[in-house]
Specification:
By secondary structure, the chain is of the alpha/beta class. The protein has two domains: 250 residues, Type I PLP-dependent aspartate aminotransferase-like (Major domain) (Aspartate Aminotransferase, domain 2), CATH 3.40.640; 134 residues, Aspartate Aminotransferase, domain 1 (Alpha-Beta Complex), CATH 3.90.1150. It contains 16 helices and 14 strands. The radius of gyration is 22 Å and the shape is globular. The relative contact order is 0.12.
Length: 396
């Protein structure tokens, strides 16, 4: 195989197109898909050396694969991380990032505003293995200070949060976490790596559902864990190798092609979201528009400083008529689709209280600010005026 030239010193968009490319003897332009489960050896001695780690080579695609390795290297270049391992889904990435390092007796402190499945891991799964879990309101620094006044092993959060777009001060939380002896794991899905780099604020581990903006066109599942070489070697590699949430080479290839246009797509998502949020807020004062790019957002200034001056690609609407009006709005959409997915080229809308967060009790949803009238919207790449016509008509 022939490796392309080093692009680590070049600008981010170039890295997204060129990074990590491995060309075969055929000198293909597009990255090759190595659809193979295993690899052969010239001799028994070579196989022995490979399994002992004396010879660097591919052994089994559950461990590593050329197409998958290209994706991992490109993601490292994009994030500015030393190491990356990709997984079969975003939730597999979250679970691996947490479970690979936690053991009975350890303590995790997490923001309360999490995606429903992430909250299930923290609240239900980890305690079964003897891990103590404590939840805090992510935007309340006093709660973080109190929770991290005693030793902790892991801090986990997402910002902006799903679905009500809370913004958490990454620098302050990372400082508190490290003082308490904890590693910080950040789910960066809503901000995307284009808008926010958690490691620059002190995060130790960043996780993504690559299903979202990295693929960005609703084709396949994938996840990623980005971290230091030390964490990867000491915790992540063996956990993934022996539990098996490996990414298909075909899915890895789809993600590689998605990265080539990630910057262009995310910026268009954000431009559309900003315009739509401002228009609905001005024309429908009865509707609460939740968008970090608006001055009305409680953490607007922090969002502008932390997310490269952008409000992001996601909007939430809180409709005064509750569940009934939210369902009427969703059922009246003619262009946007009802879907619990996000980060797609197509605009997607969902009702969190009855989909992504339906497992929670009414009191838990109320504490998170997930009202019966809330609709989460992932803004797509359509013409913003067409989307506005659709939304305002559905609201009217």
């Amino acid at each position: 195989m022939a490796r392309s030239k080093d692009v680590s010193s070049l600008r981010p968009q170039t890295r997204l197109v060129r990074g990590g490319t491995l060309r075969s003897a055929f000198d293909e332009t597009s990255e090759a898909i190595y659809m193979t489960s295993g690899y052969v050896y010239e001799s028994a001695e070579e196989a022995e050396a490979a399994f002992k780690g004396d010879k660097a080579r591919f052994v089994y695609s559950r461990y590593a694969n050329p197409t998958v390795s290209m994706l991992e290297e490109r993601l490292c270049l994009m994030e500015g991380a030393e190491a990356c391992r990709v997984t079969s889904s975003g939730m597999a990435a979250v679970f691996a990032a947490l479970m690979s390092q936690l053991k009975a007796g350890d303590r995790i402190v997490s923001s309360r505003a999490l995606f429903g499945s992430c909250l299930y891991i923290v609240n239900d799964i980890l305690p079964r293995f003897g891990v103590r879990s404590e939840l805090v309101d992510g935007t309340d620094m006093q709660q973080w200070e109190q929770a991290l006044a005693e030793p902790a092993d892991v801090v986990f959060l997402e910002t902006p949060s799903n679905p009500n777009l809370d913004i958490i001060d990454l620098q302050r939380v990372c400082d508190l976490a490290h003082a308490a002896g904890a590693r910080v794991v950040v789910d960066n899905v809503f901000a995307t790596p284009i808008l926010q780099k958690p490691m620059t604020f002190g995060a130790d581990i960043v996780v993504y559902s690559a299903t979202k903006h990295i693929d960005g066109q609703g084709r396949c599942l994938g996840g990623a864990v980005l971290c230091s070489e030390e964490f990867c070697a000491d915790y992540l590699v063996n956990f993934l190798r022996h539990t098996g949430p490996s990414l298909s080479p075909f899915n890895a290839w789809v993600m590689l092609k998605g990265l080539e246009t990630l910057d262009l797509r995310v910026r268009r998502h954000c431009e559309n979201a900003d315009r739509i949020a401002r228009k609905i807020e001005s024309e429908r004062p009865d509707v609460k528009v939740i968008y970090p790019g608006l001055g009305s957002h409680p953490q607007h200034e922090l969002a502008m400083a932390q997310m490269s001056g952008s409000g992001g690609p996601m909007i939430a609407l809180d409709l005064p008529g509750g569940r009934k009006q939210a369902f009427q709005f969703l059922n009246s959409l003619s262009l946007a689709d009802i879907s619990n997915n996000l980060g797609d080229a197509k605009t997607l809308a969902t009702h969190p209280a009855t989909t992504t967060h339906q497992r929670l009790t009414d009191d838990e949803r109320e504490r998170l600010g997930i009202t019966p009238g809330m609709v989460r919207i992932s803004i797509g790449l359509e013409d913003a005026d067409d989307l506005l016509d659709d939304f305002l008509s559905a609201l009217g």
